[in-house]
Automatic annotation (TrEMBL):
Protein name per the record: MBL fold metallo-hydrolase
Leader sequence residues: none
Lineage of the species this protein comes from: Bacteria, Pseudomonadati, Campylobacterota, Epsilonproteobacteria, Campylobacterales
Keywords, in A-Z order: Hydrolase, Metal-binding, Zinc
Cofactor section: Zn(2+)
Length: 260
């Protein structure tokens, strides 16, 4: 029986960029606005955050913003993130302190998913071994070494596992070396399958299009992970949630309310 009580998607910022960053080889010249999300999973035995968004200081501070985002590696510039959207402030709107989060689960360690670790140093941080190694080696420009300068309580895993009854980590490499998705069984209704960046948009799922950035250019690995998510969704009667699809997010946004 699932231990999940509530599930809350949390908008932590937005980023405008060319669609090809989400759909490999498709959408050249089309600019999209993508939500940057964290997901709060409240269980009978603690609280889990899937992803933690960006480091606010690298966006709000002009010197840091120039260093990290205004360079050749970031053609489309910095994300947009307000003080209100910092995770501690979002959690406060839900009546929670950041210390009320027991586990941060990083689907992967790119800047828009793990940058906020600096605000969650008290929690255990779950990550795939291959992902942590890839991030420490800075295998692509979306890893910021400085995101990991703070004290982090890493809990490193090498395969799929259950965090608690009703919450399961799913291996979906391709976008990055150790990307992980998450299957969440709610008390009622269909389970939610968080794709993470294995599928930015609904289009990635429906048309089986790889994300724009693929680890070591392994497009086929990314497509295999999309197909794996679809197979799991069929088997579990789950709904796949793409991670950077604004239209999909708006259809599900209930903040500060929750799904249960």
């Amino acid at each position: 029986m699932t231990q999940v009580k509530r599930f809350t998607p949390i908008l932590t910022g937005t980023h405008r960029y060319e669609k090809t960053l989400s759909t490999r080889g498709h959408g050249k010249g089309v600019i999209i606005e993508a939500p940057i999300l964290a997901y709060l999973i409240e269980t009978r035995n603690g609280r889990i955050l899937y992803d933690v968004g960006c480091d606010y200081s690298k966006i709000a501070n002009e010197v840091k913003r120039k260093k990290f985002y205004e360079n050749d590696g970031f053609e489309f510039g910095a994300p947009t993130m307000s003080e209100e959207q910092r995770l501690p402030n979002r959690l406060a709107e839900l009546g929670l302190l950041k210390e009320d989060i027991d586990v941060v689960f990083c689907g992967h360690l790119h800047f828009d998913h793990a940058g906020g670790l600096c605000e969650m140093c008290h929690a255990d941080v779950h990550v795939h071994k291959a992902e942590l190694e890839s991030a420490k080696n800075l295998e692509d420009e979306a890893y910021f070494a400085e995101d990991f300068d703070c004290p982090i309580n890493w809990k490193v895993f090498e395969k799929e596992y259950s965090l608690i009854d009703g919450v399961r980590a799913i291996e979906t490499p391709g976008h990055t070396a150790g990307h992980m998705s998450m299957l969440i069984e709610l008390p009622k209704g269909k389970p939610i399958l968080l794709a993470g960046d294995a599928a930015d948009l609904s289009e990635n799922i429906e048309k089986e299009i790889a994300p724009g950035l693929c680890w070591q250019e392994n497009e086929q690995m990314a497509i295999q992970s999309i197909r794996k998510l679809k197979d799991i969704a069929d088997k579990e009667n789950a709904q796949i949630w793409p991670n950077h699809d604004m239209k999909f997010f708006k259809s599900k946004n209930c903040f500060p309310q929750f799904l249960s």
